[in-house]
Amino acid sequence: MKVSQRVDVITNLVGFQACWVACVAYGQPWAAIVVAGLLIWHCFIADSKEWPLVVLFSLLGIGLDNLSYLLGYISFPDHDGLFIPTWLMLLWLAFATTLRHSLATLMRYPRVIVPLALVAAPWSYFMGHHLGSIDITGTGYLVIAFGWAILLGVFSWCFFKPRMASSATDTDSSSIKQSRS
């Protein structure tokens, strides 16, 4: 990996974390400003093929959270609209920018990204709950965990060239079988 690519990965990671704090801890006004900054920077590093992926992932993630909201698994203080709050929609957009940058390596391994999503996604919502931004039921944590795991797993499998973690002996034995045929 080139130095400029490493800088882009680190910038993307730090930028997303800044977006998470702005969205979850500070809400609408800060969310819009910080996510806009990340998206402007992202325009300089992303190729045109990446934007449909960012939009599709964001819409599916927003749909997942909105369904959880409508079913009563998650709720938001001082919010009673038909859709989830804007700050959470913006957070999905910011997260989608990580898929081909700071999460790119992990996205190539469905066997890694799925269990990671099962743990990391509910943890993020748990922290949002403790910051007072979201209320979530026990079932909500399960819906979030499995929803994220499925979403990231499907994207990993469909949009990234998955590498299955296998040992050298598995590779050697399959090549021996092929040579005997």
UniProtKB/TrEMBL annotation:
InterPro entries in the record: DUF2878
TM spans (from-to): 14-41, 53-76, 82-99, 111-128, 140-160
Keywords, comma-separated and alphabetical: Membrane, Transmembrane, Transmembrane helix
A Pfam family recorded for this sequence: DUF2878
Keyword check for Membrane: yes
Domain of life: Bacteria
Full protein name: DUF2878 domain-containing protein
Provenance organism: Thalassolituus oleivorans MIL-1
